[in-house]
Amino acid sequence: MSLVERYIAEGRVSVEELKAVQTEYPWFSAAKALQEQAEGKVLRYDVDAEKIAEESEGEIISRFLRKGDYRIVAEDGDVVDSVLTEAEIDDEDDLVSEELAEIYLAQGLKCEAIEIYRKLSLLNSEKSVYFAEKIENIENNN
After folding, report:
1. What global pTM score does this model have?
2. Nearest-angstrom CA–CA distance, 25 and 60
3. Alpha-carbon gap, residue 13 to 22, rounded angstroms
4. How many Å apart are CA 103 and CA 100, to the nearest integer?
5. pLDDT truncated to tens, each residue of the chain (142 aa)?
6. Residue 81, in any domain of the structure
7. Distance, CA of 128 to CA of 126 (rounded, Å)
8. Quick one: 107 and 51 in the same domain?
């Protein structure tokens, strides 16, 4: 006696329940196999590849969540309000220039000069390699 037959005999699952699962989720070939096994049919695995290919993964998941009334709930923790795609510079930082970085270097303020070069690199992506070399030179001259 197979596991499915035993479950049916013990009343754990009915053929109707297996049919309902297979009807609701036709792409779930295991449910179809269990249903056919419960009905004493020869196991076969026919998959409608065209039907599966028509549905995106997101559509399948959405349908599953709607049918079962499941909900995806965020866990407690830090909430990210937005994703930054560009560098943000505070109002205090609006005075950044290569000249200011050179003045900091002349005064021996290497950390401040490096910080200015990093901000300039973010603001001027086309010159990022140039600023990276400047930063590397400052760090190597310590």
Report:
1. 0.37
2. 9
3. 13
4. 5
5. 566 666 667 777 777 777 777 777 776 666 666 667 667 665 555 556 666 667 777 787 787 777 777 666 667 766 666 666 665 655 555 678 999 999 999 999 999 999 999 999 988 889 989 999 999 999 998 6
6. no
7. 6
8. no
Do residue 95 and residue 55 come from a single domain? Answer: no
| Alpha-carbon distance values, 40 to 3, 37, 56 (Å) | 13, 5, 33
Residue 9 tokens read as 């005999």
How far apart are alpha carbons 120 and 131 in whole angstroms? 7
Q: Which domain holds residue 110?
A: 91-140
User: Residues with Cβ < 8 Å from 51, sequence gap 6 or more?
Assistant: 26, 27
Domain count, the chain: 2
Structure-token pair, residue 79: 């909430």
Per the CB < 8 A criterion, the answer to whether 116 and 110 are in contact is no
- DSSP codes of every residue in 24-36: H-TT-HHHHHHHH
> Residue 110 in contact with residue 75, Cβ under 8 Å?
no
Q: What residues have CB less than 8 Å from 11, skipping those under 6 apart?
A: none
Consecutive H or E run containing 2: none
